[in-house]
User: What shape does this take?
Amino acid sequence: MTRLGLGLAALGRPEYLTVGHADSVAGRFDPAALEQLCHSVLDAAWDSGIRHLDAARSYGLAEKFLGSWLTRHPDRRENLVIGSKWGYAYVADFQRRAAVHEVKEHSVARLAEQWPQTLHDLGGAPNHYLIHSVTPDSPALGDTALLDDLRALADSGIRVGISTSGPHQADVVHAALDIGVFSSVQSTWNPLEPSVGPALALAHDAGWFVVVKEAMANGRLVAEPSELTRVADSAGIGRDALALAIALAQPWADVVLSGAATTAQLAQNGAALAVDPALIAGDLEIAEAPESYWDKRSRMEWT
Assistant: This one.
């Protein structure tokens, strides 16, 4: 087993906010072809020792693709940790250049709608079920009826948690820690946006399961020149591998997600596990102000 996990954000829907995604995934607007690709990457992930898989209702057909893969390999389920998320609905329907890809709603009604859909598509319950992208303006953490429903899920043995995004991730994690319902968190952390790190350390110390997403900053750390690219290029290692290795080096990170959309990308990402620790010991000093980082992310194109 490895602490590297696989996120299916780019394998369940044809377009995503990743630099170069359009050039990586041929035939992605054909659901059958995308399912086949997803299965091939899942097979490669299994063969490489990856046992943590992450999906969401808003990742297009990701839960369905993961569920059909599990049906082919029923003996693998007990050895996997599967996380999924609710709160967004995918509305682009595989249309090219859709104006809107997903719609966010953190409500009792949305949970009641999406939990059965997750069970159906996965063929059973995930190990972790997270509110997708909680931000300070989300009503989720103050909705007592919703928290009661989530507490009931937690009492049934599901790790209930949150995922976070935006410049105030740390505030959200601190607020969730005080509620007593959650025990899992998935946050964006990378050398460009490390601001949530201390809050994630507190969550980890409190017994939460901590997952890092977007460790390559949606491809920016591979495509844009920086001290990270200089170090990686000088050492002759992949820029993606170095970014992932830096995230894996954080002592509070239980799993770091690869967002690979092809088997080749997954193999390249897997090289993170063999990166020389000396290359990740220092501060690259490339962090951006959170507001600036998230403003740039908001202006990225779905491709």
The two ends are 32 Å apart (CA to CA). The beta strands are 4-7, 52-54, 81-86, 88-90, 102-104, 128-134, 159-164, 184-188, 209-213, 255-258. The chain has a mean pLDDT of 96.
